[in-house]
Amino acid sequence: MGSPSAQLPRRTAESSGLGRNVALFNRLRLWAYRARRRYSDRLEWEEVVDAFALNVNHEFAIPLPAAEVAQTAQSVARWVWRRSFDEAGFRAVQAQRGSNGGKKGGAKGGRANTPAQQEQRRRNARKASQSEGSASRPKVTIAQLAEGVL
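The structure assignment produced for this chain is given below.
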């Protein structure tokens, strides 16, 4: 007999009880966040999002009406377009983040993360875990567990 998870069907967003609208919205927005950087023309972007939404809708046992799918696609496309970057904008943001040099909090300041500080944090964590482990714990035998002592 195989593992229990191999016998059970995967739980899909549609079967989670949230409904087709939520399932469509979540699939669409998660895809759109990644896909947005490939498009620099807004009209083309909106067409691609609409096409993807229609494909997701066709996966449902009972598809949503086309007008509902189009409205959800338009909403997601506009929101992601306004709050995302094209490839050049994304690279500029990442370059700025990289220039912060690993400092927590970026240019605003924060503690540096030098190798010496990392090592000191590791030592402190080891000391803390060792002191917790040395605390006296009652010894419990298998027989006591079987008798229901604990």
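Interim note for the steering committee: DSSP finds seven helices and no strands in the chain. Residues 115-133 form the longest helix (19 residues).
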